[in-house]
């Protein structure tokens, strides 16, 4: 299997969570707005919609291979920020909530690494970036 096929599979897998999450935030922002308000940030409902739109568009960019280097860096930063802002410190609730928050931080940091790697290697040959000649592909 070629590296370009592997990159395509990775893009599909990395896009799924953000496309779904963004769509859910846009159609029902209440839960996200509650988390945002709970973190002490202002304009929680507006920020929930902004987060949903960002997640949906960034996920679609990764899926289609459009501006993947930019989307990768933005998603990496988003993962680190949300992990820190919404899931630290661990000791903020019941034992189960603390365990879930710890898992979420680890997941976000791990995803940040995957998005940095994607931003570094690019979208591969099977992408809109390659089709429009944004950069050379191997």
Automatic annotation (TrEMBL):
Per the record, the major location class is membrane
Q: A Gene Ontology CC term for this entry?
A: plasma membrane
Looking up Pfam families in the UniProt record yields: DoxX
- Top-rank taxon, per record: Bacteria
Q: How does it sit in the membrane?
A: Multi-pass membrane protein
**Where's it found, cell-wise?**
Cell membrane
- Record's InterPro entries? DoxX, DoxX-like_oxidoreductase
Which keywords does this Swiss-Prot/TrEMBL entry list? Cell membrane, Membrane, Transmembrane, Transmembrane helix
What residues form the membrane-spanning segments?
5-24, 36-63, 70-89, 109-128
Give the family from UniProt: Belongs to the DoxX family.
**The protein, known as:** DoxX family protein
């Amino acid at each position: 299997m070629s590296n370009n096929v592997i990159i395509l599979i990775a893009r599909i897998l990395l896009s799924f969570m953000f496309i779904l999450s963004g769509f859910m935030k846009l159609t029902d922002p209440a839960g996200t707005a509650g988390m945002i308000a709970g973190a002490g940030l202002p304009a929680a409902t507006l920020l929930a919609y902004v987060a949903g739109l960002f997640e949906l568009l960034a996920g679609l960019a990764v899926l289609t291979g459009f501006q993947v280097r930019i989307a990768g860096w933005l998603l990496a930063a988003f993962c680190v920020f949300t992990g820190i802002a919404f899931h630290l410190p661990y000791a903020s609730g019941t034992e189960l909530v603390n365990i879930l928050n710890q898992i979420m931080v680890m997941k976000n940091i791990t995803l940040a690494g995957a998005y940095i790697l994607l931003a570094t290697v690019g979208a591969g040959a099977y992408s809109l970036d390659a089709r429009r000649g944004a950069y050379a592909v191997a």
